[in-house]
């Protein structure tokens, strides 16, 4: 037997085994490093989220629904000719609400009763305005653009103004909505379209929508959205943490 060949083969096998072990060890090391990094990232994200939660503001409306002017004798519609509203809010979150801005819009489409021969709705026919008039009605809004901060537990009154023809507080149709960062939720500035039936029919009937945006100390943006329902009842639509754009971003 040629011992030289045998020893060479054994040596080669040993070298291959050593190389394989080294490669396995390197792969295990990389795997552990990757897992460690992921764990560090998760821990950091959890730490940051805890910090964010500790500083998150939440604004809720505490004033009476009667603070919104509606037409006398016809409480289903806003009265844009009255003085703009003053709405009182309270910060029930953990941190101050900064750069508070708000808008109030009517419904996507308003339904009106006209007399007719139809037996529907006690002799009235319900219909929407023409497209042109409906578009004009959708654009009407009050706005609040002046509160710098609402501290934790503080109540503040937001004074609104009517956006006139030459107002700088205007939004394009494409920008008239608030969206969450994960794109799962999107809310228009206008309240839902009114049904073609009497407000007393039992179908949801909304008069307006109040949209508020504000920031926390980390410059993250948040929103509180309310609808005013028929017979003057506030309904919470959404309280969203960390939205994509606030009202200031959506101007123009």
Description:
The protein has 252 residues and is of the alpha+beta class. The chain has 2 domains: 1-55; 57-250, no CATH class. 26% of the residues lie in helices and 34% in strands. The protein has 3 helices and 15 strands. The protein has helices at residues 3-55, 131-139, 247-250, and strands at 59-61, 70-71, 74-78, 86-91, 97-105, 111-115, 124-128, 141-150, 155-159, 161-162, 177-179, 186-188, 206-215, 221-229, 233-240. The strands form 5 sheets. A 6-stranded antiparallel sheet has the order 10-8-5-13-14-15, with no helix packed on it. A 3-stranded antiparallel sheet has the order 1-4-9, with no helix packed on it. Strands 2-3 form a two-stranded antiparallel sheet. Strand 6 (111-115) and strand 7 form a beta hairpin. The longest helix has 53 residues, at 3-55. The protein is elongated, with a radius of gyration of 30 Å. The termini are far apart.
Radius of gyration: 30 Å
Low confidence ranges: 117-121
Task: Give me the strand/helix succession.
Answer: HEEEEEEEHEEEEEEEEH
* Portion in beta strands: 25-35%
In DSSP terms, counting alpha (H) and pi (I) runs of 4 or more, how many helices?
A: 3
Average pLDDT number: 83
Apparent shape? elongated
Secondary structural class: alpha+beta
């Amino acid at each position: 037997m040629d011992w030289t060949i045998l020893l060479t083969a054994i040596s080669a096998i040993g070298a291959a085994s050593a190389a394989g072990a080294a490669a396995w060890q390197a792969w295990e090391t990389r795997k552990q490093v990757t897992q460690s990094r992921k764990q560090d990232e998760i821990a950091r994200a959890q730490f940051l989220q805890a910090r964010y939660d500790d500083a998150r503001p939440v604004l809720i409306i505490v004033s009476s629904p009667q603070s919104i002017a509606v037409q006398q004798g016809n409480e289903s519609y806003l009265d844009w000719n009255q003085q703009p509203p003053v709405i009182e809010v309270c910060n029930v979150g953990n941190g101050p609400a900064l750069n508070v801005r708000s808008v109030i819009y009517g419904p996507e489409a308003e339904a009106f009763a006209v007399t007719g021969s139809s037996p529907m709705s006690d002799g009235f026919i319900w219909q929407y305005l023409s497209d042109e008039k409906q578009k004009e009605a959708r654009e009407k809004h009050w706005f609040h653009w002046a509160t710098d901060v609402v501290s934790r537990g503080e109540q503040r009154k937001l004074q609104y103004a009517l956006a006139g023809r030459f107002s700088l507080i205007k939004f394009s149709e494409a920008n008239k909505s608030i969206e969450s960062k994960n794109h799962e939720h999107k809310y228009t500035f206008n309240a839902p379209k009114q049904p073609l039936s009497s407000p007393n029919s039992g179908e949801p009937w909304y008069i307006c929508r109040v949209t508020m945006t504000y920031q926390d100390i980390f410059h993250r943006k948040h929103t509180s959205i309310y609808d005013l329902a028929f017979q003057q009842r506030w309904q919470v639509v959404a309280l969203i943490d960390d939205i994509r754009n606030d009202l200031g971003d959506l101007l123009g």
